[in-house]
Amino acid sequence: MAKSSNSAAKKVADKAAKAEAKTARKAASKQRRSQLWQAFQMQRKEDKRLLPYMIGAFVVIHRQSRPSGGCLFVLLLHRARRSVPPTIHSKEVQP
Q1: For residue 70, is it left (φ>0), alpha (ψ between -120 and 50) or beta?
Q2: Nearest to 63 by CA among 49, 79, 76, 48
Q3: How far apart are CA 62 and CA 55, in angstroms?
């Protein structure tokens, strides 16, 4: 019986240690995010072109990562195909 109470106490201690480690990781992560946000805000206020450059870089990377070259190209292609007038091969009945 002493063995089972010993293992139960060990489990409780392990659980408490894991919870404490998780809390420490969360606090460190929150501090890191806060520090990065603070640095970004300082840099943004100093350099007015930072945000447009970052957005532009995101758009370029996103367009290059798409297999079809980007959503914009697909939308433009779809719109261009819709504006084409019907041809003689369409299903319209000819007189």
Answers
A1: left
A2: 76
A3: 10
pLDDT score for 90: 54
- Residue 27 exposure: Cα atoms within 13 Å on the Cβ side: 6
The most confident of the ranges 4-8, 29-33, 66-70, 73-77 is 29-33
Question: From residue 90, how far is each of 78, 83, 87, 93 by CA, in Å?
Answer: 18, 14, 6, 9
At 49-72, the pLDDT tens digits run 999 999 998 888 877 776 655 555
Residue 92 exposed, middle or buried by CB count within 10 Å (0-12, 13-18, 19+): exposed
Write out pLDDT tens, residues 27-52: 999 999 999 999 999 999 999 999 99
Q: Give dist(CA 30, CA 14) in Å, integer.
A: 24
